[in-house]
């Protein structure tokens, strides 16, 4: 198929479809927390978002730089040659976002994610986080400026450093158990 087995591209499509539903219209809350099935809330998540300024986790592997300029410009021509500078190192999850902002970003997120995945150069360069790039570029396109939180979530695993693991149950709002979490026989990570 045109997505080469990349099922994650269904995320923005699912959001677009949900926003068209009666279930979405029935939700009275003004802010939405977007999570994944392997996210565990560690403690109360404060809503620090505001209209036009969602909360997002910073992903160290998502930093746009001049090497991404051409891909970003092709995905978002109106952003111009420097558009990549407005693309934040975030993804669509975990995010706390105002409902109007989610409605504004959903369709561009879907369209850009699909374009990136079906463009051979973008697919090759951006890899498995291409849907996250779709969200980041779409957010810049519609003028959203996310508040970036490095401690929004923790993704501990076999390559975690001691500082990341120290007090992680109180330091982070979300435990993302996407990677293996190995312990020694004495119970220490």
From TrEMBL:
Instruction: Specify the protein's topology with respect to the membrane.
Output: Single-pass membrane protein
Single GO term (MF): glycosyltransferase activity
Q: Which GO terms describe its cellular component?
A: membrane
The cross-references to InterPro entries, in alphabetical order and at most eight, read: HPAT-like (IPR056508), HPAT/SRGT1-like (IPR044845)
- Pfam families registered for this protein in UniProt: HPAT
Location relative to the cell? Membrane
| Hydroxyproline O-arabinosyltransferase-like domain: residues covered | 3-188
Keyword entries, A-Z: Glycosyltransferase, Membrane, Transferase, Transmembrane, Transmembrane helix
- PANTHER family this protein is in? PEPTIDYL SERINE ALPHA-GALACTOSYLTRANSFERASE (PTHR31485)
What name has this protein been given in UniProt? Hydroxyproline O-arabinosyltransferase-like domain-containing protein
Organism of origin:
Phaeocystis antarctica
